[in-house]
Amino acid sequence: MKTIHVSTTVNGDAAEFICGPDESLLDVLRNRLGLTGAKEGCGTGDCGACSVMLDGRLVCSCLVLGAEAEGVTVDTIEGLAEGDHLHPLQQSFIDHAALQCGVCTPGILVAAKALLDRNPDPTETEVRYWLAGNLCRCTGYDKIIHAVMDAAKTMRAA
Amino acid sequence: MALDNTGQRVFKVVGTRPPRPDGVDKVTGRALYGADMSAPGMLVAHILRSPHAHAEIVSIDTSAAEALQGVKAVVTAADFTPQEDEYLDDILVNCLARDKVLYDGHAVAAVAATSADVAKAALKLIKVEYRKLPHVTDVDAAMRPDAPIVQSGRSLETVPEGMSENVTSHCEFGHGDLEAGFAKADLIIERSFTTAATHQGYIEPHACLATMGADGKGDLWCCTQGQYNVRSICADLLGIEASQLRVTASEIGGGFGGKTTVFIEPVALALSRKSGRPVKIVMSRSEVFLATGPTVSSSTDVKIGMTKDGRITAGQAHLRYSGGAFPCGTVDMGAQAAFAAYDLEAVQTLGWNALTNRPKEAAYRAPGAPQAIYAVESVVDELCQQLGLDPLEVRLKNAARKGTKSSYGPTFDDIGLMATLEAAKAHPHYSAPLGENQGRGLSAGFWFNFGGNTCVTLNVNTDGTVGITEGNPDIGGSRAAISQMAAEELGIPYDKIRTIVADTSSLGHNDVTDGSRVTFSVGLATIKAARDAISKMCSRAAQIWGIDEEAVVWEDGAACPAGPNAGKFPPMTLAEIAAVSFNTGGPIAGHYEFNADGAGVSFGVHLVDVEVDRETGGTKVLRYTVFQDAGKAVHPSYVEGQMQGGAVQGIGWALNEEYIYGEDGRLQNPGFLDYRIPVASDLPKIDTVILEIPNPGHPYGVRGVGETPIVPPLAALSNAVSRAIGKRLHSLPMSPPRILKALSEA
């Protein structure tokens, strides 16, 4: 199968890769760029564990082709902290014990950041509906919702 | 082991909520799970699976696949030696079908190739000739004498004559005179219930990376709840010695019991041995649903007698479970747990397991208990309704307590059921007003809790910090709890301790992370290992001071002279003793290994309010409160997390989740779109109330908490829905079509 050469920007840095025409962005991130923070929980866009930002839009990277990254920006969980300084959402998840196994956590953090970028003061219901595409099987969501609400408060005060 | 100071101990670290040691790794994407590991020269393997529910394998021809460019190894059942031990042979046959495929998705062959594309293309070149056989997927149908036989010759002697060969085991528990008990009742209700098989639904599919060299040494990286169990099974199935196989548990993306066995690991090792290359297998989500272990499906009859004032006079349950195509003992646990919450003079439970053409059951959080207790708690609720009694008062009147001879035999020690019921009664939730089409449900729940084989090493570093090596994968914050208990015992700050999960070559055997055992057993071993290190540190201080070892005690993280007669020496802290350890006898370490007993049973009570939409049949959970006895909550946030997570899995089981099989015996919903687990917008806040009735079997009073919370939601939801719509449902899940049907029959 003919491969495609792609030039893109990942977490602010220029990146290049070669991929198959049917290769998902998730597989490219994990297998070609070494960014294993995004997880494959289903491969069908139902669980949200592979959530990344594509040109500022929240997507399931398992439903995006690697070739679609050409000329756009990709932001993943690996780019959320600035150096050793955690993003307020990351700190809030640790402080609120909002993760147990942690496998859904990268996707939920990326999705939560996308929410707070567009709505810095969401209601609990808005958070619950925004995160309805991100499955978590450990927590019952309760502490996740609290962590997002509290991070939003911290960020508004900053 | 006795409680320290009979519960009077004032804790400094235990009971606080420090950040978890793996927190930063998990919020930055740095934590490595099963699928996140690679190796140089690694091959990728895929598995060919049965398209039939039940068929004889006439022949398998892998020659065309082997000839494909890039294919490095192909394995089938023929590459493994059948095992004499039935338990092991069942695991082997489940990993790769031998003579028959026993369910839709049963693995038949595996291919390792240089890329996933090549491996998948090779699967299409494998020619399997099947002869289809009649199938059965329903437990009641499977027990009929004329049912298609899933496997022959698997029935234990305990099975009564005249039943289908599919019935593999029978069990019976109870005590007292049932007939006399029912004769004393003012009202007897007898009902039948069914529950669908559900899946643990962990978000991380099974994944592993296997390396086996020509020297017979192997390394295996995998997501598992028990690396030692994986090692022993794989070593047996591959015919190698345990010492030659090192298994490392990755971070685990959820397990809930489903990662207590193996599905792909022996296959990856065999492919690696054959190809001489590292082999990675990652399951797809549909493979997880089709061919890993869901819970049992069940069919249960319950009969309970009650007096007008709410005293239960007798209880009886007949439980029929199916653990899929292989013998399964889960019904024994259901039969033992069914009436555990009650203090009964007469009780009997009978259980049967039947084979069906479904995947091999794996444990799922309190395996067997939710189904049984759902049926019992539903009948108790209906008795309360018909007799006009308060369901909480009735449970208080009949609750098991210290001294109760339990329905499954043992006499209870200190247990927390009365306390949780009292807490529920006093909580504002219980008396809050309800609106139209709304109902409130209540259920008690129970789990045995286990201890088991445990081994911990504690190393005192020369800079005054401590490393703990334990052997149980952390599925809910246990590394934090273990560090807390060590800090408590040693008298040093939590952040001076780092707890890691060892591979199988670095520490002695540890049982699987299951049975709610880790915080209890590993915690206990950690406390004992700390005490071992403390005694060595006291001995070093005695040596330095030139006094008897017995004249030194450990207080607030330091060795001190035991009294004025011991001599006047300033206390030596752990850090001070550690700093000079190389001059006083060498490194200091504590160790403890044992087979833990005294886990202490666990009880919980759940309250739920629901509203049913009569047009759509949808049920909205409005309010939910969990009350549970944790013995002692070491890290309350993670105790709450277990209570909340278990409750929500139970809500999913009650309202939506089910394995749906077609007429053809094939699974119709192997994906998260059609197997719908609860999402954030489905749920309200899950409120929690932790009770602490110390477990006499642990020095801090700790009890396991992880499994009990999945038990009560099934009946609590069913009781709430029944009260909301004025009609009782007897099957789970109470999906909208089932509720609409019940309403239309009104």
Which tags fit this structure?
heterodimer, A: 158 residues, alpha+beta, Ubiquitin-like (UB roll), DNA polymerase, domain 1, 2 domains, 5-stranded mixed β-sheet, 5 strands, globular, B: 746 residues, Aldehyde Oxidoreductase, domain 4, Aldehyde Oxidoreductase, domain 3, 3 domains, 7-stranded mixed β-sheet, 6-stranded mixed β-sheet, 24% strand
Structural overview:
The complex is a heterodimer of chains A (158) and B (746). With 158 residues, chain A is an alpha+beta fold. Chain A has two domains: 4-79, Beta-grasp domain (Ubiquitin-like (UB roll), Roll); 88-157, Orthogonal Bundle (DNA polymerase, domain 1). In chain A, 34% of the residues lie in helices and 16% in strands. A five-stranded mixed sheet of chain A has the order 2-1-5-3-4, sandwiched between helices. In chain A, β3 and β4 (57-60) form a beta hairpin. In chain B, 28% of the residues lie in helices and 24% in strands. The N and C termini of chain B lie far apart (57 Å). In chain B, strands 3-5-1-12-9-10-11 form a seven-stranded mixed sheet. A six-stranded mixed sheet of chain B has the order 7-15-14-13-8-27. In chain B, strands 16-24-25-26 form a four-stranded mixed sheet, sandwiched between helices. Chain B folds into three domains: 4-31 and 451-596, Aldehyde Oxidoreductase, domain 4 (2-Layer Sandwich), CATH 3.30.365.10; 34-133 and 206-282, Aldehyde oxidase/xanthine dehydrogenase, a/b hammerhead (Aldehyde Oxidoreductase, domain 3), CATH 3.90.1170; 297-449 and 600-744, Aldehyde Oxidoreductase, domain 4 (2-Layer Sandwich), CATH 3.30.365. With 746 residues, chain B is α+β, with helices and mostly antiparallel strands. The chains are: A alpha+beta (158), B alpha+beta (746). Chains A and B meet through α2, α3, α4 and α5 of A and α1 and α18 of B.
